[in-house]
Amino acid sequence: xxxxxxxxxxxxxxxVGGMFFAWVILRPVAGDLLEPPQRLTLWYHVFKRFFxxxxxxxxxxxxxxxxxxxxxxxxxxxxxxxxxxxxxxGLSMMAIFLHIWFAPFPRLGRAVASxxxxxxxxxxxxxxxxxxxxxxxxxxxxxxxxxxxxx
Length: 151
Hints:
Layout: H1 2-33, H2 36-71, H3 81-102, H4 104-113, H5 117-147
Helix pairs in contact: 1-2, 1-5, 2-3, 2-4, 2-5, 3-5, 4-5
């Protein structure tokens, strides 16, 4: 249980912490300092480096979460309400990320490659909104995970 929980927490910190840094710190600085061509190119390459970590985090979160649900709690029937909520929010976050990965992210890459800055700006705006939503869901999930069993 301790190995699964430790890996689970590490994966959550990487994913949610990365979104927090990108959305709250990097986004406003890049917006203030960089013109659209440099800003869009920066974001595309930031995502290109961060998104493999999100994939790894999702794999670890799913594996360790299901390991704890079925190996420790004896299935969903033995899991407390906060575990059900964490699973639901985690799956929601994964669905949002999959949409980002398969739709606006490749379009952002094509826009940057072809120097279509208006299209790139549109794709980045969509990614920004979705990451903002995922960040809120992720922070709620952290609150549920850390305090749920005490409710």
